[in-house]
Design a protein that fits this description.
The chain has 224 residues and is of the alpha+beta class. The chain has helices at 2-16, 46-69, 72-77, 79-85, 119-128, 154-166, 193-202, and strands at 30-40, 94-105, 108-118, 141-151, 172-179, 181-190, 206-212, 217-222.
């Protein structure tokens, strides 16, 4: 009696795993995971137990990806949110799956499944829930030597540094030399030396005296 049942199961599984036309896996951020799913057999209903075991394996595949993305303490503290918003729709993250093995052990049905998941969709949902923050690509920093002339007091020097921090968004300022009328600073900036020099002039507080782009060097006069 069980042979026809097993033949039908194999046939249904084969149909389910047929590739969908028009889908290109190369265009998706996907991840493959092997998981084991189990289910209790109730009233000798092998079909339902098998289906439940597969669903268990697919959810565990999603859980596996989540664990690789956020800390376990976050998963523990936000378990209900994650369960309701991700695990409850595990099938939506599954591109396809393949049953590697399956067996019945007493009243338990067990399957081993290899799943391919849309990891990018999981990442998007975790970000939407505020559980995952993806660091932005860091912009390269350039070190520029700037010589500022026309300083008549220390208050002028302090104003120059404040302008560099607030108007020019300089990453870091290192004072190398300060004397009457002149100051030399090393600046860490984002972008090119040429564009930075142009932005300095646009503030209306500096006039450009000399720029040596190849040496990352700028000379300006402070206009107040």
């Amino acid at each position: 009696m069980r042979k026809p049942f097993l033949i039908i199961l194999v046939f249904v599984t084969w149909i389910f795993l047929l590739p969908c036309k028009g889908f290109s896996q190369d265009n998706e951020d996907v991840k493959s995971v092997n998981t084991e799913g189990t289910s209790i057999i109730i009233n000798d209903d092998l079909a339902s137990a098998r289906n439940n075991a597969i669903q268990d394996a697919l959810q565990k595949a999603v859980e596996h990806v989540v664990i690789t993305l956020i800390p376990t303490k976050t998963i523990a503290s936000q378990s209900k949110i994650i369960r309701d918003n991700l695990y409850a729709k595990s099938n939506e993250y599954i591109h396809d799956y393949r049953i590697i093995s399956e067996k019945q052990y007493q009243a338990v049905y067990q399957v081993n499944v290899r799943s391919t998941l849309f990891a990018s969709s999981i990442i998007d949902d975790l970000q939407a829930l505020g559980l995952l923050i993806v660091e932005k690509t860091k912009v390269p920093v350039t070190v520029v030597v700037i010589l500022v002339r026309g300083l008549k007091s220390y208050s002028d020097f302090a104003k120059v540094k404040e302008l560099l921090k607030t108007k020019m968004k300089v990453v870091n300022i290192y004072q190398r030399r300060f004397e009457w009328g002149m100051a030399r600073l090393d600046l860490e900036i984002q972008g090119t030396v040429q564009s930075f020099a142009g932005e300095l002039v646009k503030t209306g507080h500096f006039s450009l005296d000399n720029t040596r782009v190849d040496q990352n060097y700028i000379e300006v006069s402070f206009l107040k």
